[in-house]
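Fold it.
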Amino acid sequence: MIEQKKAVIYARYSTSNQTEQTIESQLRACYDYANKKGFIVIKEYIDRGISGTREDRPAFQEMKRDAEKKQFQVVIVYMFDRFARDRYISVVYKEHLKRLGIPVVSVVENVDSDTTAGMLYESLAEIFAAEYPKNISIRSKNGQANNIKKGLIISGQLPFGYKNVNKKAVAIPEQAEKVRYIYESYLNDVPFKQMAASLNMLGIKTRNGQNFDEMKFYRILRNRNYTGKYKYKNGEHSGIYEGIYEKIIDEEVFNKVQAKIDSRRKTPAFAKARTVFILQGKLYCGYCGNIIYSEQGYTCKNGKKYWDYYLCKAKKRKKLNIQCESKRHHKEELEKKVIQDIFKNILNPEKIEEIAEDIYTNKSKEKNIAPIKYIESKIKTVEKNINEAILKIKNVTSINVIQRLEKEVDELVKQKEMLEIEKVKLEYQNKAQFTKQDYKDFLNSFLGGDIKNLDYQKRIVNTFVNRIYLERDSYMIYYNSCDGSDPVSFARHQEIVKKQKGIYSPSLMV
């Protein structure tokens, strides 16, 4: 008879938008998975209301300690992001469990980490030094929908004017009066500064204990919950739900305020709405080497059109006393040209084949032993310092000195733990072996997106672009390399310009 593997389940939900129903859903799916695989579940580890980016989760650490005692043989999670949402933590602890002979398996993501495909799934972000797409698709929306239908609140902090009473948003009389004052004052054209001064003088603070200002007033004036109606968006469960928030503002008053706000936003004062600049942080001046800022509010000579543009720091801050030949660059035209160049030079079928071949060849030859040896030497140095400090503690009698040395030992132990984690991470990455097809698949995964979508554009730029050095009528793009992508310095750029043209776009006229 084959002995059943002992399994444990790890489940977690955060405080942002998930509830106890989330845990129930995770456990149900994990138990179904265990039954299908023939595992016997001996224990559940559950962290409630704790972010997956933290290592000090109580149940998570208890599971780690029990694993080291070899109390089970496999860890089941609903999704890998329940195990850890921080990729660094995920890699380190999965590798730690793997060394103990304990795999972490996901109900939703049916991935074998021992295979090339599985390692690729978990490690491509580190390999390419890019922002790997975060998994936001399958979440615990059913738990939220169930609460909404029961007339229960699902958000963490309630708006000003409400308190949580048995998961109902109940009005606080004193604050509700102030909410009505804000709505009435706005309709009567009372300036925000006067409203703020009045409330602040009375000692009335926001939910976060801050003074009122224009943005905080707008949040209150735009919040439909004050009408007793909660707008919920979740696929088939979407709709307007009543009975969750106690009514503070009449809907007629609320609608008048919205109409007034919208009419004001059509005026020139609101023309400079916040814009997403996809090249922000990547652009540097090709003349002086300063970073290039994103700017708004530039008016054409005819005085009619607002421009979003990029401008060199030296040009913007004249106090720097730097003579720079750069000029303003129109945002949309520059960004469009850069995205076109990325698709031309990287994301096209012919280039993908060539780049995948180059990466595969270079990674096959690459040896990452040196960084590991360096970390090991640092660990030995820290261990030596720990032993010396402990020896000093044994030989002194002063309480103050002993306390100082004990604190020093604690800090050194933390340093050692961090270095050991870094070593495990390097060893894990060093093991990954990928085929040429794996690299092709990764590059091809960027094709087919909505080219007009700013998030898609920004993801492409963040993944592939190292830096862009911009001149008056041209620019040079430096792409991230497979063997490390330290920022290309201005001095290095100047050397390269002297030697070769690189990927140059002399036709760019802004």
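The longest strand covers residues 40-48.
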